[in-house]
Amino acid sequence: MMSLKLVIFDMDGLMYDTEPIGMKCMLETALQYGYEIDKEFALNSIGMNINDHRKKVLEKFGPDYPYDQISLQSRKMRMDYLLNNGIKVKPGLRELIAYLKQKNILIAIASSSKRETIDTYNKLANIDGSLFDYIISGDKVEHSKPSPDIYLKVLEHLHINNEDALVLEDSRNGILAASNAKIKVICVPDLVKHGDDINKLLYKTVPSLNEVIDEVEKLL
After folding, report:
1. Predicted confidence (pLDDT) per residue in 78-91, tens digit
2. Quick one: which of 39, 42, 34 has its CA closest to 66?
3. Which of 35, 61, 85 is the endpoint of a domain?
4. Looking at beta carbons, which pairs linking 67-74 to residues 24 or more positions away fall under 8 Å?
5. Residue 37 within a domain
6. Which among 183, 190, 96 has a CA at the least distance from the CA of 145?
7. Where among 54, 70, 85 does a domain terminate?
8. 161 pLDDT more than 60
9. Is the pLDDT score of 99 beyond 80?
């Protein structure tokens, strides 16, 4: 029987409403270099770390695609926007973190973004990163989501069994990663409405983080 000891948060699209601006910056920057990336391709790339994303993009557009330049320019555009306009915190995030801390449940962030980005987003959102018992970025694992590596690293670091953990995700790749790690997943949808192939892997789908507390209560 499950005894919930750990909740693992994805970041982009789950904690913070950053996916739309991130996608907009990437598509616009690629277009400036003469490459048109369709939205479906971009959506299917959500959750990948930079190395796996580079491989996916070069497979589609060929070796002449200036990946590093486009990626750097796109990330700068996104960060400039967030620094100037602020970052939107997903409804219920602060309350959920406070609840989990009050219940002495470990919390972690497992994001495909770089650690610098994670720390910057937390600072912009006025979320104290030290509240989290562990934070791992995508560059710390060989294979990004949908491989289970990043979630397995969290379990290993915190000495928690997979059956005693819960993942909160929004993306297809993230859900697959958690499922491949054999961890229960609650989906809080963001940009994509998932099909039956993904929904069958989920413990639950809830409309926002506001509803996660009720689901956690059932697992205690």
Report:
1. 999 999 999 999 99
2. 34
3. 85
4. 69/33, 70/26, 70/29, 70/30, 70/33, 70/35, 71/26, 73/29, 73/32, 74/22, 74/25, 74/26, 74/28, 74/29, 74/30
5. yes
6. 183
7. 85
8. yes
9. yes
Q: What percentage of the chain's residues is helix, strand, coil (to nearest 5)?
A: 50, 15, 35
Domain count, the chain: 2
Residue 162 backbone dihedrals phi, psi, to 5 degrees? -60, -35
134-137/184-187 β-pairing: unpaired
**Spatial separation of the C-alpha atoms in residues 84 and 88, rounded to whole Å:** 12
pLDDT higher than threshold 80 for residue 49: no
The DSSP output letter for 89 is: B
Cα 91 from Cα 158, distance rounded (Å):
27
CA distance 74 to 140: 22
C-alpha 179/C-alpha 194 separation (Å) is: 15
Report DSSP letters for 128-189, one per residue: -GGGSSEEEEGGGSSS-TTSSHHHHHHHHHHT--GGGEEEEE-SHHHHHHHHHTT-EEEE--
Confidence of residue 22 (pLDDT cuts 50, 70, 90): confident
pLDDT score at 62 = 94
Residues spanned by the domain of 41: 19-85
CA dist., res. 178 & res. 81, Å (int): 31
Structure tokens at 45: 């790339």
DSSP string, 36-73: ---HHHHHHTTT--HHHHHHHHHHHH-TTS-HHHHHHH
Give the number of other CB atoms < 10 A from CB of residue 176: 20
